[in-house]
Design brief:
The structure holds two protein chains of two kinds.
Chain A (H helix, E strand, L loop, with lengths): L4 E4 L3 H10 L3 E4 L5 H6 L7 E4 L8 E3 L5 E4 L4 H5 L2 H6 L1 H8 L4 H6 L2 H6 L5 H4 L41 H7 L3 E6 L2 E6 H4 L18 E7 L7 E7 L10 E10 L2 E10 L6 E2 L1 H7 L6 H11 L11 H18 L13
Parallel strand pairs in A: 1-3, 2-3
Antiparallel strand pairs in A: 4-5, 5-8, 6-7, 6-8, 9-10, 10-11, 11-12
Helix pairs in contact in A: 5-9, 11-12, 12-13
Chain B lengths: L17 H6 L14 E7 L5 E7 L1 H4 L4 E6 L10 H4 L17 E2 L5 E7 L2 H8 L3 E6 L25 E3 L2 H6 L3 E9 L11 E6 L5 E5 L4 H11 L7 E4 L16 H12 L3 E4 L14 E9 L5 E13 L12 H4 L5 E10 L12 H18 L4 H7 L4 E2 L4 E2 L5 H12 L12 E2 L2 E2 L19 E4 L5 E4 L9 H13 L6 E4 L16 H26 L19
Parallel strand pairs in B: 1-12, 10-11, 14-15, 21-22
Antiparallel strand pairs in B: 1-5, 2-4, 2-6, 3-5, 7-15, 8-13, 9-10, 9-12, 13-14, 16-17, 18-19, 20-21
The chains are: A alpha+beta, B alpha+beta.
């Protein structure tokens, strides 16, 4: 761990001012990922700006009937918030599928969006990694890549985004609110995280001198027909090999609207509008679900150890959509797949 | 020791060290603090094979608070013969010598030790060290290097065995299976990381709190490596936060802490990081091939078992993996072989029933396959082939309760309700299966000694240089002593984890209670004799003429 300055921001404007003043500075809130990164020498910030005193820890109704979640709302508070539990159970379920109670108590909403990949090579500073050290190469492509991406990867990086919460936020079409020098802007969730391309060291489209202030949910929470299904090497405290957020609106057995997002398969929560469009208007049957899975995975590619993920993803999509359609969502307490 | 007619044997009681552990009063190796303690951080090699061309330490040395940086090029004198680096449980070969030369033998090998006034400074300075390597091509994968496997017999032990003609019997048998099983490397990773606090006593002596399963083994190692007299070295390990075999041999935190303490003439603490816990010994990856045959009734006619395991380039680590089936199942035609592949890893070490855990896993999986091929219940197959003698040594067992174990197990589990057809049992969407496996382990006993001191006020102290890595050795020692002398258990104090105490072997192999426990019994017997003699000396003693076996020792 390197030495660093530690300062505290008094309000959002002060946070923006401080981050802009020091190019080596970074914000710290829950620190559940950042502290590990600093300890391992993956990140060497010159300054940590503590933002935990900012008043960003409320969940409020928005004028259009949605919800605005402050960036500092802890994951556990959010998962058990009555409004989330009732109106956005897909989000609550995804949060509870991740990490451990202790980590969820510390981790914040904004921090969850900004966590880095858990690719082993990213953390092992003795190995090449384009995400950690641009231009040094990717060790995972020809290395141990069981956890790695099957969609949207590039020759420079095959890392995956580790979040469960973000998969639900992608499916729900949330917006990320970010404050900077020019005030606040709203970023559609699909545009927030990036694919690796030839700049895998840049995870998101958030500017260096911006701070996430909130995440906004639109009114429709798909509370009736949803499921978050997470498949992992052990039933608890493990990152997803494949996870699926499925949300449906069904009328007389016909799908009116479908949302489908995958975790553990790409550099960002993966959505495929073609697969969703294919489901819309189709009967809520296994055949429709298999067709959507086929479409979503048509460009999937494995790198050796993770080849199995393509078939696993296909089955997980079908199962999650079936769970959503039958209004029997995956339990995150009894984690056996029903 | 069923608990009938005894005061403490076989009776449930709280661990005597339980309160100290849960309240934090029990101090582990790297929790000890002394005045002027300095902290060392080991720098790990980034390559698996090659040599160090140069280590650039100037920038790190310039960090305020850094005391020194030790490397192979900058270190005090160390022993130069393999013999000096050996230890009680070292396998044949040339033991690894930390900071000895410029050779890199495995990934993560310690190549430098940064010592500073505090651990944060040491770790930060370590990140500033740059190392130039001449890298050589490494081989670390067992599967891809099967062709390099060689049978290794050392110290007259080959681990191979042959009886009858397994090949011919196989060819003439109606039921045959051929299977191969793989195990990956397994790391112990106990909760407590390896750590050592080397206390510089200022008079040439050194006292070390080390995480180890064998304080005497470590004492001798330090004396040998640093050319010190055994009297000048004291190793303490009163509490060990889990070992599982990883603490049987001295690990590198120990010589590094001592090296720095001697060079700086002050106390030094070295702790491994969780990541560095993956650079010490481990259970070896292996590939086991089994070729079994049976007659039409399911009686074994041929049993071939081959082990292919990894070791380092510098030591040949192997245990007996392939002979266990001859303790379990009657078979006249067997062929057992063990082969090793030398890879660019650190040497494997013992882990949880070493040899048995690996061998029996494969044997029992293969027996299940044979049961399926013979259309027999897996339990019935085992009973059909049950052996009443160890066929390797051709000796009957003094006791073997496995048949009864099978019976009770089957009854309690409801084995008769098992459906044998694959994919026939479900819980929701999950396929479930009921299986069985047999585990056996040898009842070993080693040489051990103990001391027992009864004082006039009734307190009773027993001591032996064993360790307590979690099985409850303190409690066992206390129970044995209280039982023998009939004193209240709270009057007994057990001491262990100190190289200054009477000799005991490393704690491992499930032999501590049988070895140290018996030593305590013997020591207590001597106290009993002394007590009886004193009682008989009293005028008009009612014990006059009484023999030891006529007397009951009790507290009133």
């Amino acid at each position: 761990m390197n030495n660093f300055e530690f300062t505290r921001a008094t309000d959002v404007a002060d946070a923006v001012r401080q981050i802009a003043a020091d190019p080596g500075a970074t914000f710290v809130a829950g620190g559940t990922n950042l502290i590990d990164l600093i300890k391992e020498g993956v990140t060497k910030p010159s300054r940590l700006i503590d933002i935990t005193r900012l008043q960003l820890n409320r969940v409020e109704e928005t004028s259009d009937g949605g919800l605005r979640i402050g960036a500092l709302v802890p994951n556990s508070d959010l998962a058990y918030h009555p409004q989330i539990d009732k109106r956005y159970p897909l989000l609550a379920s995804a949060i509870l599928a991740g990490a451990s109670p202790q980590l969820r108590n510390m981790a914040t909403t904004g921090g969850n969006l900004l966590q880095r990949t858990r690719c082993f090579y990213f953390y092992d500073t003795t190995t090449p990694c384009n995400k950690r050290e641009p231009g040094s190469g990717c060790s995972a492509i020809d290395g141990l890549n069981r956890m790695h991406a099957i969609l949207g990867a590039s020759e420079h990086c095959i890392a995956t985004h580790p979040s469960d919460m973000c998969v639900a936020l992608a499916a729900l079409e949330a917006h990320v609110l970010a404050a900077g020098h020019n005030g606040e802007r709203s970023i559609a969730f699909a545009d927030f995280h990036r694919l690796p391309g030839d700049t895998p060291h840049i995870d998101t489209n958030l500017n260096k001198d911006e701070i996430i202030t909130a995440v906004e949910l639109p009114p429709n929470g798909f509370a009736k027909n949803y499921s978050y299904l997470k498949i992992r090497d052990r039933l608890s405290y493990a990152f997803a090999l494949v996870s699926v957020a499925a949300a449906l609106e069904i009328e007389n057995g016909v799908i009116r609207q479908a949302r489908l997002a995958l975790g553990g398969v790409a550099h960002k929560p993966w959505r495929d509008r073609r697969a969703e469009a294919q489901l819309s208007g189709a009967p809520a049957t296994r055949e429709s679900f298999m067709g959507a899975a086929q479409t979503l995975l048509s460009d999937a590619r494995g790198f050796g150890h993770n080849d199995f993920k393509i078939e696993l993803a296909r089955r997980a999509i079908v199962r999650a959509l079936s769970q959503a359609a039958s209004a029997t969502p995956q339990s995150q307490i009894d984690k056996r797949v029903r | 020791m069923t608990g009938v007619g005894t005061n403490y044997f076989g009776k449930p009681m709280s661990r005597v060290d339980g309160r100290a552990k849960v309240t934090g009063a029990a101090k582990y190796a790297a929790e000890h603090n002394v005045a002027g303690l300095a902290y060392g951080y080991a720098v790990a090699s980034a390559i698996a094979r090659g040599r160090i061309r140069a280590i650039h330490t100037a920038e790190a040395l310039a960090v305020p608070g850094v005391l020194d940086i030790f490397t192979h090029a900058h270190r005090p004198k160390l022993a130069s013969s393999d013999e000096k680096y050996g230890d009680e449980v070292a396998p044949p070969g040339s033991p690894f010598r930390p900071l000895y030369d410029d050779q890199i033998r495995f990934s993560g090998q310690p190549v430098a030790l940064v010592v500073a006034e505090d651990p944060e400074t040491a770790r930060f300075a370590a990140s500033l060290i740059r190392i130039d390597y001449d890298q050589r091509t490494h081989i670390t994968d067992l599967e891809g290097n099967r062709g390099r496997a060689r049978a290794v017999s050392e110290n007259g032990e080959s681990h191979s065995h042959k009886r009858g003609n397994a090949t011919r019997a196989f060819d003439h048998s109606p039921i045959r299976i051929e299977v191969e099983y793989r195990m990956p490397v397994e790391h112990h990773n106990p909760m407590e990381m390896f750590g050592a606090t080397a206390i510089w006593e200022g008079d040439g002596r050194i006292t070390i709190y080390d995480k180890t399963q064998g304080p005497l083994n470590c004492r001798n190692y330090v004396a040998n490596v640093f050319g010190m007299s055994q009297d000048a070295v004291r190793v303490l390990s009163p509490y060990v936060g889990g070992g599982f075999g990883s603490g049987l041999r001295p690990q590198y935190e120990l010589p590094l802490a001592v090296l720095a303490a001697r060079a700086l003439r002050r106390s030094v603490q070295v702790t491994l990081t969780r990541q560095q816990m993956f650079t010490i010994g481990y259970r070896a990856a292996n590939i086991q091939s089994l070729v079994l045959a049976a007659d039409a009734d399911g009686r074994l006619t041929s049993f071939r078992h081959e082990w292919l395991g990894m070791t380092s380039r510098f030591e040949n680590f192997q245990r007996s993996y392939v002979t266990w089936s001859s303790q379990l199942y009657k078979c006249d035609n067997v062929e057992f072989t063990q082969k090793l592949v030398k890879l660019d890893h650190n040497t494997p070490c013992d882990m949880r029933a070493p040899g048995g855990a690996e061998g029996l896993f494969a044997i029992e999986c293969a027996m299940d396959e044979l049961a399926y091929a013979a259309n027999l219940d897996p339990l019935a197959l085992r009973l059909l082939n049950y052996s009443d003698k160890d066929q390797i040594d051709d000796k009957p067992y003094s006791s073997k309760e496995l048949r009864e174990c099978y019976r009770q197990g089957a009854e309690r589990f409801g084995w008769s309700k098992r459906s044998a057809k694959p994919r026939s049992m479900r819980e929701g969407n999950e396929l479930v299966g009921w299986g069985m496996a047999t585990g056996i382990w040898e009842a070993m006993q080693m040489e051990a000694s103990a001391k027992a001191v009864l004082t006039a006020n009734g307190s009773f102290e027993i001591a032996s240089a064993t360790a307590d890595i979690g099985p409850g050795t303190y409690t066992m020692m206390t129970q044995v002593a209280a039982e023998m002398l009939g004193v209240p258990i709270e009057h007994v104090t057990a001491k262990l984890g100190d190289s200054g105490l009477p000799h005991a072997p490393v704690e491992g192999g499930s032999f501590t209670t049988s070895s140290v426990g018996c030593a305590i019994q013997t020591a207590c017997r001597a106290v009993q004799k002394e007590l009886l003699w004193l009682a008989q000396k009293a005028p008009h003693s009612p014990f006059a003429g009484a023999k030891l076996e006529d007397v009951t020792f009790a507290d009133d």
